[in-house]
Each structure stands twice: as structure tokens, then as C-alpha cells.
Amino acid sequence: MVPGHTVVHKKAYHFHLLPSSLLEPSSQNLVGGGCVINVREFFDELEALEKAGVDAKGRLFVSDRAHVVFDLHQRVDNLEEKELGAAQIGTTKKGIGPCYSTKAARSGVRVGDVKDADLMNAKLRALASGWQKRYGDILQYDVEEEIQRFDQYRTRLAPLIVNQVPLVQKVEDQGGQILVEGANGLLLDIDHGIYPMVTSSNTGLGGVFTGLSINPFKIKEIIGVVKAYMTRIGPGPTPTELFDEVGDTLQRLGGEFGVTTGRRRRCGWLDLVFLRYSCAINHYTALNLTKLDILDAFEEVKVAVEYTLDGAVLEDFPAEMSKFDKISVTYKTFAGWKEKTASCTEFDRLPQAAQDYIKFIEDFVGVKVKWIGTGPEREAMIFR
Q1: Residue 58: which residues within 8 A CB-CB, separation 6 or more?
Q2: Looking at the predicted structure, is the pLDDT value of residue 3 above 80?
Q3: Contact call for residues 49 and 43 (beta carbons, < 8 A)
Q4: Rounded to whole angstroms, how far apart are CA atoms 132 and 127?
Q5: Are 289 and 45 within 8 A, CB to CB?
Q6: Residues contacting residue 133 through CB under 8 Å, at least 6 positions apart
Q7: Could you give the 3-state DSSP secondary structure of residue 77?
Q8: pLDDT mean across residues, the chain
């Protein structure tokens, strides 16, 4: 998958596929079985991290059950988006959707299959043949070229491939700590997001168990990470999106561009209707509210507290995308604090208006805001 995370630890590191916990030298890191992996991009990212001083040797593993994203999937992804025209999903065009499609169709190639050249080559040729029949000459792809490229990757990849089930079980049995890092927010979940403007996997809590074989009874904390305002990349309903100077300011101050695609993120006020829905799906034990400092510049700050449709209040977050075109949003308005919160590390030192804003979020969704980000640095964090 392609998370697109930027982590600032003395300097900025950009992650797309690899776990950001590689920055912690004592950590062991696993790309789980629920992921799909472009092997070329995997090694490109690993090399970039190593050049930046990150030593991943002996600390990075890939599940043999993860599926492989080939260049073939990327070519098909581009063709599928073009076919949709104005109804495009807005994918990253990285081949993720087509790869999950072949996984569900039971014709995909797993990472473990790569070790067996004859098996992988036969499966890839069969995939290419099927899509060539579907698209004909507009699919410009050389399957033999990709097969030849994997002859170079196979030796490098083999030592990293593991059976994740005993690996995870061993850590659990020894009482080790496991931190799970996901790729996208709940709005993009294949089941609980705003379908069809979603990704192709479960980005919520359910994906943790299906993708990693973790014991659900050993989960100690479920942390929901949410910005102090709303962002989204690509098309799809965003009820609180701002099309004015306020939205532009949020985008500019927040540096809201996708790490993987470079696309401009759409920005708006924090949507507490959706956040409450996300809490109901993922059962957060705590929230981490990030980028509070971006709101320092505003005279007033708003949060969405209610949706109405045809004059009636919606009691639940709607499943039908068509309803979002007709939804009206009710906001709660707060006075802006117009004071610097950047790098603040104590809640009591925040302006009272900022404290009121955070407490309202907690009361509305019923989950404590335990961490508050006040800047890109790891140290710029309030813990309550």
C-alpha cells in the first residue's frame, strides 16, 4: 500500500510503503500480509532511507502472504481510471486497486510465490494474458521484461520474507510491544468509507486483525489519529470542505500536499459527525489530535456537529454517496486564540480558547484527546 507519511525526527523522512518505526533502531519491522507491495518501489524507498542514515539490516521483514503489485497492475490502474472519465475514483495510479482485485479473484501473486521463479512467471503471464484480452493494444506492457527484472529482485527479497503468524505469536507470547501503522483514514475504508470513493482494503481496525493475525484480546490501546481540521486527497464527498481563503490558508500553512502523489489536499473544518462515526467503527481508547498549531492564525474556528438532509437531522453517517450532495452542515463556532501554540508541550499552557476547542471535541465524540500535536517535530507534543 502507499501510506504517504512524513515523519520529522531531527530531519524529515518520507515513507510510502515501509514502516516509519524503522527510525527506532531497536524496533523489528514487518510489512504485513494485508498489504500489497511494489517490489521495485520497496527497494527504492529502502535505499533512500539507508542513504539518509537509517540502518534497516536485520530489522525489516515482509509477510509471505502479502500480494505483489506489478507494473502490469499500474498500467491497468491508469486505464481503469481513464475509462471512468468524470467519475474517476482519484486513485494514486500505483496499481493498488487492480492488485487487490486479483487477490480477491484468487489469481494474484503473493510475495512467497516470488521465491519460486517458475510459479511466479506462470502466474504473471496468465494475468497479463487476461488483461491483454480485455484491453488489447491500448495496454502497453511487456511481461517478459518484468519477469527479467524480478530475476534481479528475487535474491534481495528472499532473506526478508517471513511467515508472519509465528513471528507475531512469538512477540505476543513474550509480552513484547506491537505498534500497528495503517495506511489511510476510515473515509477510505472499502466497507465503512464513502463508497465507491475508497481504497481497496480495510483501513480501519478490522484490517489489523485480518492483515496481521494479532490476538484481539491483547490489544491495549486503539489510538485514533486526527488532524485539527479536515483534509482529503482526490475526489469524493467532503462536507466541510472550504473553497475560500480560509481553505487556502489551511492548505498553505499545513503544507497539505500528498507525500506519494504530490497532489494538493482539499481542506476544511474538522468534521465531528464523521469523527464520531469513526469512533463507533474503530472503538478508539484515545485520540491523537495533530496540527493544532495550524489553527493559530484564524479569527474563528469551526467544527461540524450535525448533518441535515431535506430539513431532517441525520441520526447516522449515511452510506449512500448520493446523499452527500444534498447534505447541509451545522457548525459550532469558537473564537480563535490568535496565539502561538507551536511546540507547546503542556496542556495548561495552551490558550484557553484552544483548550475549550479540544474539550468540546472530547465531549462530542466521547473519547479523550490524550495527545496533541503542536508541530512537525516529535518533541512538539502534549501528553495528557
Answers
A1: none
A2: no
A3: no
A4: 9
A5: no
A6: none
A7: helix
A8: 93
